Amino acid sequence: MKRGWLGCSLLLAWLALLAVPAWAELTLRDDRGVTLHFDRPPQRIVSLLPSLTEAVCALDACSRLVGVDRYSDWPARVLKLPRLGGLDDVQIERTLALKPDLVLMSSSERVSERLQALGLKVMVLDSQTHADVQRTLVLLARMLGEPAKGELLWVAIQQQIGSAAARVPARLRGRKVYYEVDPTPFAASEDSFIGQTLKRLGMGNAVPAAMGSFPALNPEYVVRAQPDIIMSGRAELATMAARPGWSGLRALRQHQTCGFDTAASYLLVRPGPRLGEAAMLLADCLAALPPLR
Amino acid sequence: MNAELVDSRRRRRLVTGMLLAALLLSALGLMVGSEHLGWADLGRADAQLIIGRIRAPRTLGAFGVGALFGLAGAIAQGLFRNPLADPYLLGSAAGASLAVVLVLAGGALLGRHVGSVNLAWLRQLGLVTAAFGGALGGVLLTLVLARGAQQTLRLLLAGVVVGVVLGACGDLLTTWSPAALRGRQTFMLGSTAFLDWAGVGWLFGGLLLALPFSGRLARALDALSLGEDSASSLGLNLPRLRLLLVLLLALCTGLAVSQAGLVAFVGLVSPHLVRRFAPSAHGFTLPASAVAGGVLMLAADVLARGLIAPQELPVGVLTAVLGGGYLLWLLHRRGAMR
User: Fold this and answer.
1) The complex's ipTM?
2) Which residue in A92, A109, A186 is closest to B123 by CB distance?
3) Option in A93, A212, A213 nearest B54 (CB)
4) Tens digit of pLDDT for each residue in A73-99?
5) Which of A84, A125, A292, B238 is deepest in the core (most CB within 10 A)?
6) Are the beta carbons of B34 and A108 separated by less than 8 Å?
């Protein structure tokens, strides 16, 4: 019995040691190639990109955020933080007044240069692919003083994507998806992070990687490609058949479509820690598609 | 004699009024912003930083940008003998916006395909230099297409062609790189939010160069206003003078655009304001239009910051509303007088 207690307390002590973040001075490089030096983990963070806001919160550091951009809306608690405008019209004065010890943003030369000139520490992180998201999460976790959490979070995301893939009916495997990001039309190709998620779900893509991540398409291209499944915003989907020549699209006629509402669309287009959730959303829609007659 | 006395009194009144407005608006410029700062806050370091390094350069810079646009507008209207001429007429706007898109899209397109090391020069070039170079490049292209500044009509047509073609190139690039679209949009709307002390230095350095130089060309503009034939008969070397005026116009516009983007209407409206209150020779109209442009831009900047604080309106939207409103009022009054 005594030995059991001793073992337990030793285990507890070891866990407590693990829980105390081991923090030494840290030097990191951001996506501009700029080297940033941290004496201690940042405690007052401004995030000017929704996916980075989500990443900070997913790494349990939401309480360290002191301001976010106007599009950050997840988790709900960030809605209470001061809103600092968009990426290209950041409220510089307000950002400075919040006295952040770190500003996270995607690349926008003018804003990052101006904020840096005013003495703020700026970290630029751009995610285009799954690998980028993993790298960003790991980097953020190290910087936040919780190095283990980055990989853990990535593993959890991978598991979620894995179970999403298991939900996709076997009959749909390899079917070509046309994912419309914008009715211009801009599509998510194989190369984009959305395309990579679809690939993990076992789906094909109507737009090959060679065309770039999010290429602008000629509407003709979609008609010719005859995608098996069409995914887009719900409102766009409702009027899609009225586009010249699109009424003949098999996917539309056979209701092989996924229309997402605004909140879901935002979730799907953010390369952040909710990639797994996005995969689930896609898989749920795929699983609910009516079988072909 | 009497009429001259009245004229000089009106001029003096206009200048005094504008200088007072500039002082008042500058003071407001230091007070208005997204943060409410009272006298008690002035001891705080962050308040000093906000006022000293954000509001002060922004306020002075807004005046400088407006002054350059006002001067450029007065030059353009004198050069083309057309009250609707605007500093962007010779392709500077399209050139600057294409250069901005090139830098933005270059970063996005090359970023994926080339290592980040090769991008260093693009980054160092920056949007400010690119916009300046683009504006000058646009005007030079116009000059080449018009085969110099021999003929006004040729110059105008070449300016229109360059504007359309460079604008289309910009559109083409944003199709390839949608990421550049957002930055381009911000540039087209104009903004004073990023003006820093270095920018203020450039703007006022430019003004200090351009104002005396324009003063020396004022008599040529006066002669031009009598018609090209009369100007030639006065012994003026018109092609050379036109070339100098075009270069001055390009320099003023390029400098202003590089710091604040494509701000609408300031260049068009300022000379109108001056001519309306104190019709005069170019020796007065040119510097007075510069001051009027500065005051207009200051007013727009203070309103942009204050109207929906803590959020901010794009300053170009306000100059368009203010300037457009003024022109409409002018049209309405002229219609009523007939």
Assistant:
1) 0.74
2) A109
3) A93
4) 999 999 999 999 887 788 899 999 999
5) A84
6) no
